[in-house]
Amino acid sequence: MQRRSSSSKLCRGQGHLAQGLTEPGCERCQRWSSHDLRLQPVPGSPQPLSPPRRSWILPLPYETAPRSSNSCRPRNGGFSSHGALRPNCGNPVLQQAARPAAGPASGCSLGQARPAQDGAGGAVTRPRQRGRAGAARCRGRAVTAGPLVPSAPPYAGTAAPAPHGPARPGPARRGRRPPTEPLGRLGEEEGAVGAPCGAAAAPARACPGRWLLPWGRRVRRGRPRGVTGSAARAAAGAGPEPAGVGTTSAARPGPAARPSAATMFSLKQPKPTFKSYLLPQADDNIASEPRIKKLEPVLLPGEIVVNEVNFVRKCIATDTSQYDLWGKLVCTNFKISFITDDPMPLQKFHYKNLLLGEHDVPLTCIEQIVTVNDTKRKQKVLGPNQKLKFNPTELIIYCKDFRIVRFRFDEAGPESAKKVCLAIAHYSQPTDLQLLFAFEYVGEIYHNPAKKVNGIDPGGGGGGISSASGQQTPLFETYSDWDREIKRTGASEWRVCSVNEGYMISTCLPEYFVVPSSLADQDLKLYSYSFIGRRMPLWSWNHPNGSALVRMANIKDVLQQRRIDQRICNAITRSHPLRSDVYKSDLDKCLPNIQEIQAAHNKLKQLCVNDPFDETEEKWLSSLENTRWLEYIRAFLKHSAELVYMMECKHVSVVLQEEEGRDLSCLAASLIQVMLDPYFRTIIGFQSLIQKEWVMAGYQFLDRCNHLKRSDKESPLFLMFLDCVWQLLEQYPAAFEFSEVYLTILYDSARISLFGTFLFNCPHQRVKESTEFAISKNIQLGDEKGLRFPCVWDWSLQFTSRDRLLFHNPLYIGKSTPSVHNGALRTFKRSKATVCPVSPAAVTQKLRTI
Questions:
Q1: CB atoms closer than 10 angstroms to residue 715
Q2: What angle do CA 841, 845, 847 make, to 5 degrees?
Q3: pLDDT digit string (tens) for 585-626?
Q4: pLDDT band of 270, cuts 50, 70, 90
Q5: Residue 491's CB: how many other CB atoms inside 10 A?
Q6: In whole angstroms, how far apart are CA 675 and each of 285, 543, 642, 735?
């Protein structure tokens, strides 16, 4: 190998070493030539050096890291700075490779590279490199370049390995002072083949006078002036200098001169100068850094995320941003969800809905969406297919339950904010019934029957267990439900009719309903053509004295009107034990219509939500009266009380007549039964009342609740009924099993597009739409009549058993006799079919004070 000419400047030592060259006059080559152990192929070697995979080595006091090393500091308590042991060192602790069999050494001079040769087991020997610094610091035989195996621990007490042959001759290095004390572990005698690096036998020849201290500093240690290498070695007890290293003798001592293993490891480690005051801790006890919680929405079966935006601020108070919350706004095909880790401020108590989060709003509960841009001072009411030409900085959502939800996009991306606003506007105003989330939910449940929601089977149909007795709410979808109701009320002169089975006569009537026993099925089919919507007379309830409550639509055939009306009234009269007359009440003339009720509701919402409180505070009561909402509630209560008086005191049957018989008659018939029958003032009874008089009787929940945004048919009749019941609950708190919380949650559930209870205009629409959806999704229905949607009366889908305790009124007295009204104690005699403790005269007198 050709020697490069010396230069007064420092050479690129790393480049020389990578090529297997050294510069005699270069300081870097002298210092680092033998310690740059990167995986570079050595000239004359068929393979590069491999770093050890595992090692018992702890400190390496003589190992010096090159400048190009990643770190020369200790790693995990060890001092192997470059991650590889020095393969040309003969220290038995530093290498445990298979040694080649003893044999004649190669006859190469020091200035030439030794050719590769095979040792024992085919191990490739490591060639030497020429140069003043010398790549080989150990003057023994070349060490095998095979992979290093885990070496034995220092305390194993094993003897040093046997020598492998005569020492190789080489020029002695002069000008180095020996250290005043041995710096390495005791090794073989001077000149022994495979002598360890830094052995006491040749401390000045084995390794340069530098080593790595625990904190990585390189310190130069030398021998005192005037002390030769041989004298230093003799003082250290290492014997004479080996041949070729300052002597001409080639003789090597025998194995008897080799020190024992106990002497080899008897020296103490260098004492560190740095002291740590931190107690050592195990890796398992070190607390890991807390992971950042990912804000993800909780999705129901069939629910998908449509769009989302991060760094959204939800405004809690109108006058300050102190209580605002930061989080992510997500729009799905079921709800809009605001996800945050911050607790809700200014809230002492709340119940948790299992289907909706604390900040979630169902899409069917959204009434209006307004986007605002503060910079341009623009705002726009978003429709389903409208475009947004500016980037919104604020989103205001007006809900049907009088809530206003505000979101700010100050830190959010403008494009992401615009997309999520358009997504909310699109999915909150569907144009088709099958686009509501209930269909996707039920379709997913039918395809994956194993899926459960909140630990229970979400399949619809059956009523939910709502009381401690385990009673279920009757749905009045079967013949038996109606038959049990007839027996409960004692209506012996009435029967269950199945003439509409399969909805063959009327699509807005249930399949089974109750009619007078004197009316034959053929007469009903004949008379049905004369009624609007073919809605024949429906029995609702029977008083213990024999009086019946019947609902009927108007007769559209003027010529046949008198004859058919007389025939129906005669049948009702014959079903009464006393053969009493029939009292007909035309609800269209006595009560406000659905348009007037909707107008009153809009004025009430304008007063409570939109108008500033400062402007309406002084005239609040007069403004509330001008909405006429309370006036209409009084009208319904008063008229119902009058009809109660007719049935209880006059012992006559009452017929509620309306144009279609499916709006005002639902409200009036329900109030009459709540006043007269204590069963309907229990939770189970109240739910069965709604199921019988509203759901199965054909109240148009889809249109009246405006799920598809058809504002011309919207009317809050169901809300007015709940408000009327609340008025009675306030006047007679001990007469109702349920509480105000129950009424509120019941109205909120009507805005959730998951339950089939409040989703359709009639039972026939549910069967028709669900069957078409099942065919499009390849769902096998079997003998079922349409898909079974979840029932709202299964409250375990929404609330835990602890939260459901809030449904119960603590003042409810059950079947006990006393009832308190206006501070006066009155006693009412209870018969088998108990009469309401609310007397008609008391109700009428109370209503006069409203």
A1: 21
A2: 115
A3: 999 999 999 999 999 999 999 888 876 666 667 888 899 999
A4: low
A5: 20
A6: 68, 12, 11, 10
Token pair recorded at residue 35: 């310690």
How does pLDDT run across 284-338, given as a tens digit for each residue? 444 444 455 677 888 999 999 999 999 999 998 877 788 899 999 999 999 999 9
Instruction: Quote the CA–CA distance of 706 and 761 in Å, as a whole number.
Output: 11
Closest to 755 in 3D by CA, of 687, 681, 682:
687
The 3-state secondary structure of 783-836 reads CCCCCCCCCCCCHHHCCCCCHHHHHECCCCCCCCCEEEECCEEEECCCCCCCCC
Are the C-beta atoms of 423 and 331 separated by less than 8 Å? yes
Distance (Å, whole) CA 94 – CA 71: 20
- The Cα–Cα gap between 720 and 637 comes to 11
Placement of tokens 């029995």 in the chain: 539
Q: What is the DSSP letter of 357?
A: -
Residue with tokens 């249109």: 703
List residues bridging with 330 in a β-sheet: 308, 337
d(CA 791, CA 229): 99
Residue-by-residue DSSP string for 658-716: ESSSSSHHHHHHHHHHHHH-GGGGSHHHHHHHHIIIIITTT--HHHHTTTT--GGG---
Helix (H, G, I), strand (E, B) or coil at 288: coil
| Both tokens assigned to 716 | 């809050």
User: What is the Cα Rg of the chain in Å?
Assistant: 48
Closest by CA position to 263, among listed 390, 157, 107, 179: 157
Q: How confident is the model at residue 81 (pLDDT cuts 50, 70, 90)?
A: very low
Angle at the Cα of 600 from the Cα atoms of 598 and 606, rounded to 5 degrees: 105
d(CA 196, CA 295): 60
Spatial neighbors of 59 by CB under 8 A, at least 6 apart, are 78, 79, 214, 269, 270
Helix axes 740-749, 717-731, angle to 10 degrees: 170
- Write the DSSP assignment of 476-492 as a string of letters: --SHHHHHHHHHHHT-T
Q: How far is CA 139 from CA 253, 290, 756, in A?
A: 15, 54, 92
Q: What's residue 341's pLDDT? A: 86
Give exposure, 509-522, as e/b (b: 16+ Cβ within 10 Å): bbbbbbbbebbeee
The pairing of strands 494-497 and 513-516 is antiparallel
Please give the single-letter amino acid code of residue 664: L
